[in-house]
Write a structure and sequence with these properties.
Order of helices and strands: EHEHEHHEHHEHH
CATH architecture: 3-Layer(aba) Sandwich
CATH topology: Rossmann fold
Number of helices: 8
Strand order of the largest sheet: 3-2-1-4-5
CATH class: Alpha Beta
Largest sheet: 5 strands, parallel
Strand content: 5-15%
Distance between the termini: 52 Å
Radius of gyration: 17 Å
CATH superfamily: HUPs
């Protein structure tokens, strides 16, 4: 019996990464789930990532600890207020203060290291350039640039002729299309977490950009929103 190809999937425990993970599993990949404890204010997303990993029966779930609070510069890692109640047009005007400097570059670098170590053929990241908060490290141009770097930086590619693909299955989908795809694959979105500013009990605020996009996605997808909101 042939061994399954391996994929490292970056997992935040949210809608996008969970859907991307389910897609990779459906394609026949053995899943290596990678999450990060980087000092984020919404640290309860790590429990969601663990639940999703268990639900999808991954080969291994790894949590890497980083202290990005030492760098700051984001409402997710420093003492800044998370924007609430913004309209979609307002979200699109500029990069929000919930952007974490260098986050996807750092996460993908760890993903690349783990992928090379376990001989994975693919790194899956659920970035999205349609219904998203305007982060520059979610764009196709960034992913293409990182792929070029990965092709130059790894022993796997340079010596062994084994290219590690950076795969972005959701990058051109709306949030509703992502939810519909995940629902078709049987993803339990009740396990996922998206809120940037949850309550102490882990309830979603319902008003931050991430919650607004999540609610809009479920509504437009025609799928019941299982999120537990604080109000």
């Amino acid at each position: 019996m042939a061994h399954k190809p391996k994929a490292v999937v970056l997992s935040s425990g949210g809608i996008d990464s969970s859907t991307a993970m389910a897609m990779a599993k459906d394609e026949g990949f053995a899943i290596y789930s990678l999450s990060f404890d980087y000092g984020q204010r919404h640290r309860c997303e790590l429990a969601a990532a663990r639940c999703v990993a268990d639900f999808l029966h991954v080969e291994k779930h790894l949590v890497v600890s980083l202290d990005m609070t030492a760098i700051g510069g984001s409402a997710l890692t420093a003492d800044m207020s998370v924007p609430k109640g913004r309209e979609m047009a307002e979200m699109a005007q500029e990069i929000p203060i919930t952007y974490v400097p260098g986050r996807n570059t750092i996460f993908l670098a760890y993903g690349l290291a783990w992928a090379e170590a376990v001989n994975a053929a693919r790194i899956v990241i659920g970035v999205n350039a349609v219904d998203y908060s305007g982060y520059p490290d979610c764009r196709p141009e960034f992913i293409a640039a990182f792929q070029t770097m990965a092709d130059l930086a790894t022993k796997a590619a340079v010596q062994d002729g084994r290219r590690i693909e950076i795969h972005t299955p959701l990058i051109h989908l709306t949030k509703a299309q992502i939810i519909q795809a995940g629902a078709t694959l049987g993803v339990d979105y009740g396990l996922t977490h998206s809120c940037y500013d949850p309550s102490d009990q882990g309830l979603a605020c319902g008003r931050c950009d991430s919650c607004v996009l999540r609610r809009k996605g479920f509504r437009e997808a025609g799928v019941e929103d299982p999120t537990r909101y604080s109000r």
